[in-house]
Amino acid sequence: MSDNQKKEEYLELIRKILDEIQFGSVTIVIQNGKIMQVEKEEKIRL
Hints:
Elements: H1 3-20, E1 24-31, E2 34-42
Antiparallel strand pairs: 1-2
């Protein structure tokens, strides 16, 4: 898989998370210019 394909896959994952989350945060961890981890913290409002 090429770097461009990986980047598109990661961007699609981030878009999906942003579409789904109502309240919370998304953290993208980058090392040496590459995405290593995506964290989603979601809060549920009652």
